[in-house]
Amino acid sequence: MSQLNGPFSGGPTLNDGATMPWLGLGVWQAKDGDEVIHAVKTALETGYRSIDTAAGYKNEEGVGQAIRESGVPREELFITTKLWNGDQGYESALKAFEVSRKKLGLDVLDLYLIHWPVAGKYRDSWKALVHLQKEGLVKSIGVSNFQPHHLQEIIDDTGVVPAVDQVEFHPLLTQRELLKYAKAHDIQVEAWSPLMQGNLDLPVLQEMAGKYGKTPAQIVLRWDLQQGVITIPKSVHAERIVENAGFFDFTLSDEDVKVLEDLNQNHRFGPDPDNFDF
User: Fold this and answer.
1) Which residues are annotated as active site (predicted)?
2) Cα gap 42→73, rounded to integer Å
3) Which end of the chain, N or C, is less surrounded by CB atoms within 10 Å?
């Protein structure tokens, strides 16, 4: 794994040899059209090079337009999208990928993820992603919201280990078992909702923000980084997008990392992958 350098230069090396930035812009709930275009362009102007969208977000066309209009060379970008639940299965996943690729206006995607482990379908979906990677249509393949038992099943089926598992991860949901499994299998963990959907009013975060001269958001994002977890905070506000990149110029003490880890309550702001009606 590479050094914890700046947000816009380098990042961890995935198990397939690709390099993924430590920081990306998430665009969940960003409306297609002007809102998502502005957010993506702002991020790219700030220096972000990783953009995370999904078929389920219904804004891939706007993301694609922003990428084209930004003027940033394609080879500098790392673009992720995801297979939606209703499109899971082998053939349907291949078709859904083509739809996403056309909406984004990209020949090759950097990372394609299965969005949720839909029972009875995610194993066939994974086989489709393996095929897409072999065909050279996507550089890296992975999953989102998979627990260790889901991961083990698809690895056993195909022998192909996901490069990334994107999960809800923050101080109230530290996912220790998953992190341990991922490390043992060389799977890169990526955090969605790292900022707890804005629930940053914990006294300890306010205290640390004062101590380090940073915002509570920057404290949490730095905590992600020091655990080797990629982070994709979502925002459509320019000042937040800029602020969220400001966590590479300081280091939390080991004691403070532990303090934040000890906040864990196994509390989810999003659905539980093992108890969710897909």
Assistant:
1) 57 (proton donor)
2) 16
3) N
| Consecutive H or E run containing 125 | helix 122-134
Please pick, among 48, 57, 112, 181, the residue that the annotation labels catalytic: 57
Task: For residue 82, give both structure tokens.
Answer: 């995801």
90 is catalytic: no
What token pair was written down for 32?
Answer: 């297609």
CATH assignment at residue 172: 3.20.20.100
Rounded CA-CA distance 23/231 in Å is 5
Residue 6 falls inside a structural domain:
no
Number of compact structural domains in the chain: 1
Q: Residue 24, Cβ neighbours under 10 Å: how many? A: 25
d(C-alpha 272, C-alpha 276), whole Å: 6
Residue 123 lies in a domain: yes
131 is in an annotated binding site: no
Residue range(s) defining the domain that contains residue 48: 25-261
Prediction pTM value: 0.95
How many CA atoms, within 13 angstroms, populate the side-chain half-sphere of residue 173?
A: 20
